[in-house]
Amino acid sequence: MAHRWKNDMTPADVTPKSLFLNRRQLIAGTAGLGAIAMAGGAQAQDAMTPNTLEEITTYNNFYEFGTGKSDPANNAEAMVIDPWTVTVDGLVDNPGDYSLADLTEGLTIEERIYRFRCVEAWSMVVPWQGFELADLLAKVGVQGDAKYVAFETVVQPENMPGVRSRVIDFPYVEGLRLDEAMHPLTMMATGLYGAPLPKQSGAPLRLVVPWKYGFKSIKSIVKISLVAEQPEATWNNINPREYGFYSNVNPGVDHPRWSQATERRIGGGLFASRQDTLMFNGYDEVASLYDGMDLSKEF
Ligand SMILES: Nc1nc2c(c(=O)[nH]1)N[C@H]1C(S)=C(S)[C@@H](COP(=O)(O)O)O[C@H]1N2
Ligand SMILES: [Mo]
């Protein structure tokens, strides 16, 4: 690893003192996280305050379980996640069908509190646990001619009403350029609020790319392929004019049907004002990945 990313959002460091002093709720996490102070009402829209577990796990996009925001919470319990096998293939030294335990063995699990911005212009702040994708890639041995990483979600028609009704094409697939995949911000999440990832959040293993629109963060991953050509991506396939392969959060490039300049923080309350969307969702350290690219064209 070249360098480890320094978490800019631990609750103690970044929650303004006034929020600690005025807090109305104290959410106690389980192992590994301890307590996180939460602000109630309008203050909950503060950029650095994590959303509640309730908010994060009841307002979801996971079309395998339906297109409604509450469908994943209602339906995902049926997904079978144990045993879980991840196929690693393509341009790697150590391809194979890995059990989740074998795949993650030896990798450092850390807490990362990230902003999360959906292309639909809502956002949350989420306390994930997981490891850097770069560490997994080092473990499986990326070969020199690999240029992209492709991901695929599990398909369990018997357990997934959205798959049965074919609301979109499945399996859900996504991809990153190799340098994006290797960036220390890019993580594979295995937990949320100090507990294993809930099924509606993409258990047992999902991608989290905090400077990209949420649909890049593919859930319940069963396949990781190192490839030479830009892989297919579900929303890019559905409508490439509306959903680019890169899909970096960019307040200056509107979706054809709505503005991306501002966002609604979930939990902000009925009268909360929208907040400005930040370039790269505020993660400026990724800017150099796109040097020389016109991000209004390669969006
Ligand atoms: N397999 C799969 N992954 C997915 C999706 C999906 O429908 N299926 N939805 C994406 C979208 S649009 C978003 S915004 C995020 C939502 O993650 P969350 O529900 O944990 O907030 O998951 C992404 N990953
Ligand atoms: Mo999304």
Automatic annotation (TrEMBL):
SUPFAM superfamilies: Oxidoreductase molybdopterin-binding domain
Signal peptide: 1-44
UniProt entry keywords in alphabetical sequence: Metal-binding, Molybdenum, Oxidoreductase, Signal
Gene Ontology BP annotations: protein repair
This protein's record includes keyword Ligase: no
GO molecular function: metal ion binding; molybdopterin cofactor binding; oxidoreductase activity, acting on a sulfur group of donors, quinone or similar compound as acceptor
Origin superkingdom: Bacteria
UniProt PTM: Predicted to be exported by the Tat system. The position of the signal peptide cleavage has not been experimentally proven.
Catalysis performed (reactions): L-methionyl-[protein] + a quinone + H2O = L-methionyl-(R)-S-oxide-[protein] + a quinol; L-methionyl-[protein] + a quinone + H2O = L-methionyl-(S)-S-oxide-[protein] + a quinol
EC numbers, comma separated: 1.8.5.-
Top EC class of this enzyme: oxidoreductase
Positions annotated to bind Mo-molybdopterin: 60, 63-64, 118, 153, 206, 217-219
Function: Part of the MsrPQ system that repairs oxidized periplasmic proteins containing methionine sulfoxide residues (Met-O), using respiratory chain electrons. Thus protects these proteins from oxidative-stress damage caused by reactive species of oxygen and chlorine generated by the host defense mechanisms. MsrPQ is essential for the maintenance of envelope integrity under bleach stress, rescuing a wide series of structurally unrelated periplasmic proteins from methionine oxidation.
Family per record: Belongs to the MsrP family.
Subunit note: Heterodimer of a catalytic subunit (MsrP) and a heme-binding subunit (MsrQ).
PANTHER family: PROTEIN-METHIONINE-SULFOXIDE REDUCTASE, PROTEIN-METHIONINE-SULFOXIDE REDUCTASE CATALYTIC SUBUNIT MSRP
NCBIfam families linked: PRK05363.1
Protein name: Protein-methionine-sulfoxide reductase catalytic subunit MsrP
Organism this protein belongs to: Loktanella salsilacus
Gene that this polypeptide is encoded by: msrP
